[in-house]
Amino acid sequence: MAEITEIFVMTMKDPARADAIREAARADFTNLEGVTSWKTYVTTDLNRPTLFAEIYTFPDYETAKNVTPQFATRDATKAFLAEVDEMLVGQYFTEYESKTGEVK
User: Fold this and answer.
1) Is the entire prediction scored with pTM above 0.90?
2) 20: number of CA atoms within 13 Å, CB side?
């Protein structure tokens, strides 16, 4: 099965305050069996609102489906969710293969 990447794009209430809370949540969540990684990206355009992309990887869809619901139930990750101002999008992704089988 293909690796699953879960991507959430959001705004934060107070990005500086969220940093330490995110790190505690990251340490907790990535300790769960089946969570391969959690990376954070931030937009760089100073003329637009700051967006954060929280990107989680799992070895396959079944693992992602079983582990992801725990995010909203753990104390550290609930604290992080409380720092989210607006969730713009969140969904599972996998690498795209064209009809010819090529990875694009």
Assistant:
1) no
2) 2
